[in-house]
C-alpha cells in the first residue's frame, strides 16, 4: 500500500484520530486486538437498528431477516477462508474454538458420538503434539485433554532464538501422534511456522492438524485447505471485527463426525426426555442464541480487508516488519525475541531491553502516545525458555505507517538512556 492509501485507510478508524498524553496515538498493539473501522461499528449498529431478532426459529419477517444476515456472515467467512459454509462455526473467540476441539475430542474419548467419532478417541499411549512457543490458549486445552484421556502431551522445541526446531520435530511426531496443534504465526516473535515441513510429518502418521491462525488471519491470505490442516481457529477482534466472535474452520466430514461440546437448543433434530439427536455442523456446535450482531460485524471487517487485498496487506506489513526489525537490530541493549532475521515474519516484534523492565519501557512509550503491549503475551513457557520474564511487543495493523515505526524505534532507543542504564 502506498502512503496515500494508508492515510485513507487510517481515516476510516475513528479511534486513531485521538491524542494520547499530548501525542497523536500510535497504535502498535494490533496483535492484542485490532481497532475497528467505522463501517464495522456501523454494521453491528445497523443490525440492531434494522434486523434484530433471534435467528433460525422465527416465523416473523424480522427473524427471517436476522437469519439471512447471520448466514450471509457465515458465507463471507467461508469466502475469506475459501471453504464451504458448513465448515464455518462461529465461536466467541479463538480460545473457545480451541477448547471446543479439545472437548469434542475428549467427548469422543468418552465414547460419545458412536462409530463416527471412534477414530478420534484418545487414550493412554496416544500422543498430542504442540510446540514450545504456543499461546496459552493453544497449550492448556491440550494439557487438560491429555489429563482427561491419559494421552501424553509432547512439544516441538524451539532454539535459543525462539524458532521452531524443524530438525527436532521428526523425533516428536511419531506413529503415536494423534494430533498436532500449532500456531501459524507466533504472537511473540511474529515468525511464520514452517507448516510446509511440519504438516507433512503429521499427515504421514495420520494425525489431525489444528492450526491457531489468530496471528495470521489479519496479516495475509489464510486458506486452511491449501495449508492442509483439518481445523483452524481465529478471533474476529484481531481482524478488525468486534469482540465476542471467533471462527472455527473444520473439514466438513470431520466436524460432522465429532461429538458436540456444548448442548442445548438450536443444535438438535429430535429430543426426548432421555436423549437427543444432533444436527450436522455447523449447527451441532452452535447451541443457544449465537453472536449474531458480532458475526455481522466480523463479515463487514472481512469485506474491509478483502477489498484492500490480503496479499497487499501482507506485503505492506512485511515491509513494515523489516523496517522494525532492522531498526531494533541497531539499538544497543535491545534483544529481539526470535532474532532479527526478517524472512518469514509478519509486522510484529517483541524485545527485551537490557536493564529495564518491559512495563517501564511500555510506560515510557505510552508517555509518547505509543501503545505497545508488555508482559509475557500469554506465552510463559516461551519467555522462560528464552530467559525473559516479560517483553515489549510492537505490532502493526493495516493502518500502520513507516513514520509510526520510526517514532516507535526512536522511543525504544530512548528507553535505556532515560532510565540511566549504562551502555
Ligand atoms: N492464539 C494466539 C497466537 C493469540 O495471539 C491469541 C490472542 N492473543 C489467542 C490464541 C487467543 O485469542 P483470544 O484471546 O481472542 O481467544
UniProtKB/TrEMBL annotation:
Protein name, UniProt field: Cysteine desulfurase
Annotated GO biological process: cysteine metabolic process
Enzyme class (EC, first level): transferase
SUPFAM superfamilies according to UniProt: PLP-dependent transferases (SSF53383)
Catalytic activity: (sulfur carrier)-H + L-cysteine = (sulfur carrier)-SH + L-alanine
PANTHER family: CYSTEINE DESULFURASE, CYSTEINE DESULFURASE 1, CHLOROPLASTIC
Domain Aminotransferase class V per the UniProt entry, residue ranges: 26-406
Cofactors required: pyridoxal 5'-phosphate
UniProt function note: Catalyzes the removal of elemental sulfur and selenium atoms from L-cysteine, L-cystine, L-selenocysteine, and L-selenocystine to produce L-alanine.
Family from the record: Belongs to the class-V pyridoxal-phosphate-dependent aminotransferase family. Csd subfamily.
GO molecular function, one term: pyridoxal phosphate binding
Keywords tagged on the record: Pyridoxal phosphate, Transferase
The enzyme's E.C. designation: 2.8.1.7
Amino acid at each position: 500500500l502506498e502512503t496515500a492509501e494508508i492515510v485513507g485507510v487510517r481515516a476510516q478508524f475513528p479511534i486513531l484520530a485521538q491524542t494520547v498524553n499530548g501525542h497523536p496515538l500510535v497504535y502498535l498493539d494490533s496483535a492484542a486486538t485490532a481497532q475497528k473501522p467505522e463501517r464495522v461499528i456501523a454494521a453491528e449498529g445497523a443490525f440492531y437498528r434494522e434486523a434484530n431478532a433471534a435467528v433460525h426459529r422465527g416465523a416473523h419477517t424480522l427473524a427471517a431477516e436476522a437469519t439471512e444476515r447471520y448466514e450471509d456472515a457465515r458465507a463471507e467467512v467461508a469466502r475469506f477462508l475459501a471453504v464451504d459454509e458448513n465448515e464455518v462455526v462461529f465461536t466467541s473467540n479463538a480460545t473457545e474454538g480451541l477448547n471446543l476441539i479439545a472437548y469434542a475430542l475428549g467427548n469422543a474419548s468418552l465414547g460419545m458420538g458412536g462409530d463416527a467419532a471412534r477414530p478420534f478417541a484418545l487414550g493412554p499411549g496416544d500422543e498430542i503434539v504442540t510446540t514450545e512457543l504456543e499461546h496459552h490458549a493453544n497449550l492448556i486445552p491440550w494439557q487438560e485433554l491429555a489429563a482427561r484421556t491419559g494421552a501424553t502431551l509432547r512439544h516441538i522445541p524451539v532454539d535459543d532464538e525462539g524458532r521452531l526446531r524443524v530438525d527436532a520435530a521428526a523425533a516428536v511426531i511419531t506413529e503415536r501422534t494423534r494430533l498436532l496443534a500449532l500456531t501459524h504465526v507466533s504472537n511473540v516473535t511474529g515468525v511464520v511456522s514452517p507448516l510446509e515441513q511440519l504438516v507433512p510429518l503429521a499427515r504421514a502418521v495420520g494425525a489431525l492438524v489444528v492450526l491457531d491462525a489468530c496471528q495470521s488471519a489479519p496479516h495475509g491470505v489464510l486458506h486452511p485447505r491449501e495449508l492442509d490442516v483439518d481445523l483452524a481457529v481465529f478471533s474476529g477482534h484481531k481482524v478488525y471485527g468486534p469482540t465476542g466472535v471467533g471462527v472455527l474452520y473444520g473439514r466438513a466430514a470431520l466436524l460432522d463426525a465429532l461429538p458436540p461440546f456444548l448442548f442445548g437448543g438450536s443444535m438438535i433434530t429430535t429430543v426426548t426426555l432421555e436423549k437427543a439427536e444432533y444436527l450436522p455442523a455447523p449447527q451441532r456446535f452452535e447451541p443457544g442464541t449465537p453472536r449474531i450482531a458480532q458475526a455481522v460485524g466480523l463479515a463487514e471487517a472481512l469485506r474491509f480487508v478483502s477489498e484492500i487485498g490480503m496479499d497487499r496487506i501482507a506485503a505492506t506489513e512485511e515491509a513494515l516488519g523489516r523496517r522494525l526489525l532492522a531498526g531494533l537490530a541497531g539499538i544497543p541493549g535491545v534483544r529481539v525475541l526470535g532474532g532479527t532475521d526478517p524472512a518469514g515474519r509478519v509486522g510484529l516484534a517483541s524485545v527485551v531491553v537490557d536493564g529495564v523492565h518491559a512495563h517501564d519501557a511500555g510506560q515510557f512509550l505510552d508517555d509518547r502516545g505509543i501503545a505497545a503491549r508488555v508482559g509475557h503475551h500469554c506465552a510463559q513457557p516461551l519467555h522462560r525458555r528464552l530467559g525473559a520474564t516479560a517483553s515489549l511487543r510492537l505490532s502493526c495493523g493495516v493502518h500502520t505507517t513507516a513514520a509510526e515505526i520510526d517514532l516507535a524505534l526512536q522511543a525504544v532507543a530512548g528507553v535505556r538512556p532515560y532510565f540511566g542504564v549504562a551502555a
